[in-house]
Write a structure and sequence with these properties.
The complex is a heterodimer of chains A (209) and B (187). Chain A is of the alpha/beta class and 209 residues long. In chain A, 53% of the residues lie in helices and 17% in strands. Chain A is built from seven helices and eleven strands. In chain A, a hairpin with a 2-residue loop joins strand 2 and strand 3. Chain A is rod-shaped, with a radius of gyration of 46 Å. Chain A starts with 5 loop residues before the first helix and ends with a helix. Chain B has ten helices and no strands. Chain B starts with a helix and ends with a helix. In chain B, helix 4 crosses helix 9. Classes of the chains: A alpha/beta (209), B mainly alpha (187). Chains A and B meet through helix 1, helix 3, helix 4 and helix 5 of A and helix 2, helix 3, helix 7, helix 8 and helix 10 of B.
Chain lengths: 209, 187
């Protein structure tokens, strides 16, 4: 290209890289002072640098991210579930609570298949039938599980029959509520009501203290 | 930023794709830009940049968290670009016009080692001219010039991205600068 020594060009690049030593700078400067061709050369190199640096800052096209995620291999559903739980902690807790609660309630409904009833002094029991005899008066609530209840006399309180039927004779007189529970949901509802009643009673007793 | 990225990478390692989407969000512009500068075509750039992210996702377990994530990502991206350039597969987008140019489509890009007529060059917008000159560089010089001047990366990082000795990177930059100077000498 021209007869200037090769190392001068090398120094130019060292200079452009910002890695030139003090001695090389001095030699380069001395040479440039006397050589217009090399002055030109260095100027052109600097211009070339500025030229490429002037390239504008592009941004990725819209929907680039969606494009990538669409191309990714499928993730394990386990992770998706986990993330959902992380993002909705309250819902997760509620769901877990409901699952556990209903499980225990359902099992207690089906497992409690033994005949049982509230012990009251003047009740008569015949097989799985509990009878309030005619002319007798029972004070307090009666609960019969997995059995039938016949009321011929008086009951001063609530009557509940679970998984059975209740029969009221014409002479019967019940001061409280009569309830018959045969469905799972009735059972649930009964349990919830009982729970609420317990809680309110607890608070009432707290208050009265 | 590195701490955030490393946290996201840990989540990706557990298989979380949404964490990866956040990483893509952070680096999409950088990677797309490099691919565009290397390939000179926005459709190809988008395709290759997306492919680079997909590969990063699949091979995320090979990433060393003590290193810079961007370096690793640049390496995947530039390797894919170089592969694409070497395959010279002009099988599609031939008719696609190059961004912001009139009548300059991929046919003209294929022949870009040959100089365009002076008149064509004068009609070009400045930005297209920059891209045109860069795409005329031989690909081994083009890569280092793009990384150094368009991405403003230090030589040390370029040497890590391209997995070549610092001396080689310097030599290529010197030659790339000379090649550009020659291309532009009659401007």
């Amino acid at each position: 290209m021209n007869k200037c020594p090769n190392h001068i060009f090398y120094y130019m690049h060292e200079y452009l890289d910002g890695e030139i030593s003090f001695e090389h700078t001095r030699e380069l400067k001395a040479h440039l002072a006397s050589c217009t061709s090399c002055q030109n050369h260095l100027e052109q190199l600097t211009n070339a640098e500025t030229f490429v640096q002037s390239a504008s800052q592009l941004v990725a096209p819209k929907n680039f991210v969606e494009g990538v995620t669409a191309r990714l291999p499928k993730e394990k559903s386990k992770v998706g579930m986990k993330r959902w739980f992380h993002q909705h902690p309250m819902l997760s807790a509620a769901a877990l609570f409901i699952i556990l609660m209903s499980a225990s309630l359902f099992s207690s409904f089906s497992e409690d298949e033994q005949f049982s009833f509230t012990k009251q002094p003047n009740l008569v029991v015949e097989g799985e039938n509990v009878i309030v005899p005619e002319g007798e008066k029972v004070t307090g609530d009666i609960v019969v599980k997995n059995g039938n209840l016949q009321i011929k006399g008086e009951v001063d309180g609530d009557v509940t029959v679970i998984n059975g039927t209740q029969y009221l004779a014409s002479t019967a007189n019940v001061t409280g509520e009569i309830e018959e529970i045969n469905q799972v949901f009735d059972w649930l509802w009964y349990k919830i009501k009982a729970g609420v009643k317990d809680v309110t009673m607890f608070f009432d007793s707290e208050h009265s203290k | 930023m590195d701490a955030l990225v490393n946290k996201r990478i840990k989540e990706v390692l557990k298989g979380d794709r949404e964490a990866f989407a956040e990483i893509v969000e952070l680096y999409q512009d950088v990677l797309y830009r490099v691919c565009y500068r290397m390939l000179g075509n926005k459709y190809e750039a988008e395709e290759i940049a997306q492919e680079a992210f997909v590969r990063a996702f699949i091979n995320i377990h090979t990433f060393d968290p003590n290193r810079k994530f961007s370096t690793w990502l640049y390496r995947i991206g530039t390797n894919l670009c170089i592969d694409r350039i070497r395959k010279k597969k002009p099988d599609y987008y031939l008719d696609a016009e190059v961004a912001g140019t009139e009548g300059l489509n991929m046919y003209s890009q294929i022949a870009s080692t040959e100089e365009l007529p002076e008149q064509e060059l004068l009609k070009m917008e400045m930005q297209d001219r920059v891209q045109y000159e860069v795409s005329r560089l031989p690909d081994k010089y083009r890569t280092v010039i793009v990384l150094k001047y368009m991405e403003d990366l230090p030589l040390q990082e370029i040497s890590e991205i391209l997995e070549m000795p610092l001396g080689t990177v310097k030599t290529r930059i010197h030659r790339g600068r000379e090649a550009l100077r020659k291309q532009l000498s009659h401007m």
